[in-house]
């Protein structure tokens, strides 16, 4: 997993296993536990050896499945099916599918005829007591996964590694945490030189930061002495080529404390990336950066979201939110991806798609803000 990717199926992001065909030996919820799988030999309960994973009863021939709601919808680049500690009782094969739907559907809706599942991992062999990693090439944004195992057996953990693609409809008119994928804690090794440690964050979109929360909770003898924040508005060349500016000058930190700092409006320039610097080393639990997206930032975020929706999901969104259906909606979706917000704005106002005029304003507000 690269620095820009996260586990979209992490419990800390709100992911959940909402249904499974069977969980006789091991509960389905174990699939998404954050800690590494454990094993205690010769530890038995009423159903046999206690396992740290999802394990189904023997009923070959056949197959079992589990439905997972991603904690953060996004583009999945790899799926990891971890069979740690399952040796003679791991599945022979697995497959993984994904879908994109609105809201919070239940199992019956997800398994109904109106939902289209896209194959991410074809039926593939599994190795026991191993992290089975499968690359995913589908570039679209998904909200749910279906893990199928053949014919039965145990899986310790499931991870979906990728990039978050937020729904801009949830952000309109709100101040938000622009770096909302919080760390589970970050601690550096002790430095014995004159340097300091830092970590780079990419914001949800271009925006202005008004408040920073630097949290050293649970770090007592190993909290940093000070922290500082620097920002930049990166172009196509990336943050390495951008001009960096101070957001928060070095501020003294206390152990086990949630520090809140207002950002001086004079320093709150538009930023796409933020670098957190700690002096000289130590540990932090969380960093939160509250602010608001710029108009261009909101437009870019909305366009990226719309471009990555599977076609059926895009058509459903246009119908429900904009009242746009039929050939105009199909034409708008078929022309994706849109390279720049200006291109979509021109299309909406230029009469290129007959029948779009009445809904053009609603479409523009939905996608570009």
Backbone structural class? alpha+beta
The CATH H-level superfamily of the largest domain is Galactose-binding domain-like
Largest sheet: 8 strands, antiparallel
Query: In the CATH hierarchy, what is the architecture of the largest domain at level 2?
Result: Sandwich
CA(first)-CA(last) distance: 32 Å
CATH-assigned fold name of the largest domain: Jelly Rolls
What is the number of domains?
3
| Share of residues in helices | 10-25%
Q: What is Rg?
A: 23 Å
Describe the structure.
This protein is an alpha+beta fold and 369 residues long. The protein has three domains: 6-164, Galactose-binding domain-like (Jelly Rolls, Sandwich); 176-293, Jelly Rolls (Sandwich); 296-368, no CATH class. The protein has helices at residues 107-110, 295-308, 311-322, 326-334, 341-349, 360-368; strands at residues 6-7, 16-20, 44-45, 48-49, 54-55, 64-82, 93-99, 118-125, 131-135, 141-150, 154-155, 157-164, 176-177, 186-187, 197-215, 226-232, 244-252, 258-262, 271-279, 283-284, 286-293. Strands 1, 2, 6, 7, 8, 9, 10 and 12 form an eight-stranded antiparallel β-sheet that branches. A hairpin with a 2-residue loop joins β3 and β4 (48-49). The model has no long low-confidence stretch (mean pLDDT 90).
